[in-house]
Amino acid sequence: MSEPAYKRPRIQRSPSPVYKLDDEDDSYEPYVPVAQRRQAKLAKLTSWGANTDKDKAKRLQEEQDERDDEEREEEKRKEKARKERTLLMEAQEVHNRKAAEDAKKTAAEKADEADAEILAAIAARRKLASDLELAQGVQYTEPMKSSWRPPKFVRDRTPEENRRIWEKHHIIVEGEDVPPPIENFTDMKVPEPLVKFLKSKRITKPTPIQLQGIPTAFSGRDMIGIAFTGSGKTLAFCLPLIMLALEEEVRLPFIRGEGPVGVVLCPSRELATQTYENVLIWTAALAKDGRYPQLNTLLCIGGISMGEQSHVLNKGLHIVVATPGRLIDMLEKKRFTFDNCKYLCMDEADRMIDLGFEEDVRNIMSFFKRQRQTLLFSATMPRKIQDFAQQSLVKPVLVNVGRAGAANLDVLQVVEYVKQEAKMVYLLECLQKTPPPVIIFSENKNEVDDIQEYLLLKGVEAVAIHGSKSQEERQYAIKSFKSGAKDVMVASGVASKGLDFNDIQHVIIFSMPKEIEDYVHQIGRTGRSGKTGIATTFVNMNTPEQTLLDLKYLLLEAGQKVPPFLESIEDPRAAQGGMLKGCPVCGGLGHGISNCPKLEDTQRRQMASHRISDDQGGY
Ligand SMILES: Nc1ncnc2c1ncn2[C@@H]1O[C@H](COP(=O)(O)OP(=O)(O)OP(=O)(O)O)[C@@H](O)[C@H]1O
């Protein structure tokens, strides 16, 4: 047999010169790091090319990645825990330091700090300007220009002489370049027919808020005017608007579609109606003389048909007196515009800003096309509202007659302890104290109705007014009470603010309002324009102690008799020592900001986004 052509060569294994030693075992594998080995294995598996092997390799790689991830995560967790421990230790250290510092502080200092925190939160509210102005960052820096100048003898007065006049009338002023006070209407350059008319109404000399407020407003300045109830604020803000309208009309008579020059905003329909009637009387007195043109005024409130006033809208319009809801409605419908409106006054301004009208006010501001002169007036203007308002005004002048929120000293305040079940009967007895007219206030609409019913049964001529009554009923009640046809008016508390009834002899507060500001407004329906009056208030164990404490301080401040049951109420803050300050939110003297009933109410209202629409009744 022949040999095959190809013979497989025998493999000669030659020893490796490097690794193989004679006495070494063949199974020896040199040390290779684990990671490197894994890589090699992986490469081998991958190079085999079989799908299953590839999957296996992939799985192995994934497992490895997972393990690596876990290791990284674990490391991160440890690092985080380390950091947290450090932060915790630092926080503990800060806490301990603060506790040590706090221990050194008095209770009063701590309360002050808490107050400051709450106030800072309140101050963070957006300022009162239109959204457009806020968005565009429009900020006016100079007050409005005015052509009015005080007479030379007033301009020539020294600062010391002005200071003496302020002191004489207990006026506190704040602000840059405060215009000088003027002590009579003629020197203010008020037109003669109007001065004569005012005289015929026994308005012969300006009241303190008028003698400083009117020159301030005539000078074009933004202002906050604070003066007690019945001190003539209405004239102080209406007269400058009438003068401004007069000046514009004389320069270039208004035709249909033009105007208004200015607007007065009020929180209730009744107050708007009363202010409107005053403006009508004053402008009519001017026009009657024949030397001055007729000025047209529009009343813009919910509950009345604007058709009735179309005759005003058909002419040039000078002045608008309004409640917010109806005003916005009219502006949105373009029944008139604020293109040339230069004057915005808010009466009972604290209530306007605080009581859910804030957004409405901002909305109204967005209809102004240019800078306006802004004036805020009220008898109660807590520090919080003042601070908030200041940032919305241009170089404002603050004119303050007496403490904001103080009671009118012309009112004799009597506080009586009357058990709940005895109130109605005692009311009849109380009515004998003075002749009519008398106003009775209750916080509760049903109670208002009950009191009226009871009085009618007892033969007392009484009318009632509250937010659930129709506009006609409300108008009838006010009209018949003002005219003297009815002796007694029973009203819900909120109806009180700003209403000026003739010579009210006696105010009876059947249920004490929780907020002391409301009490101040309610008793302020009597003792107006220099006359005196009595206010009798029923309190009992249902009256919160804090309210009683506010009342006690108010009586003390006004130099009134404090009954023994009020005298015995102790102020928990008195033990802390130091001067007791008024609450910056409501002005009450008997509590601090942290337990202010008004703040609670405001917050509750804001949370519920409650908006008091004048179309729902105005109050
Ligand atoms: N200079 C004055 N001299 C005498 N009486 C005046 C004077 N100015 C206004 N009055 C009268 O005083 C009364 C109260 O005025 P007004 O209603 O403006 O008070 P007010 O300060 O707005 O009070 P409230 O805070 O309660 O609204 C009115 O009847 C008004 O005619």
Summarize, please.
Residues 183-211 form the DEAD-box RNA helicase Q domain. With 619 residues, the protein is an alpha/beta fold. 43% of the residues lie in helices and 11% in strands.
CATH class of the largest domain, named: Alpha Beta
What does the radius of gyration come to? 39 Å
The coarse silhouette is globular
CATH topology of the largest domain: Rossmann fold
Architecture of the largest domain in CATH?
3-Layer(aba) Sandwich
Largest sheet: 8 strands, mixed
| CATH superfamily descriptor of the largest domain | P-loop containing nucleotide triphosphate hydrolases
Mean pLDDT: 82
Tally of distinct domains? 2
Give keywords.
619 residues, alpha/beta, Rossmann fold, 2 domains, eight-stranded mixed β-sheet, 14 strands, globular, disordered N terminus, disordered C terminus, binds adenosine-5'-triphosphate, hydrolase, RNA helicase activity
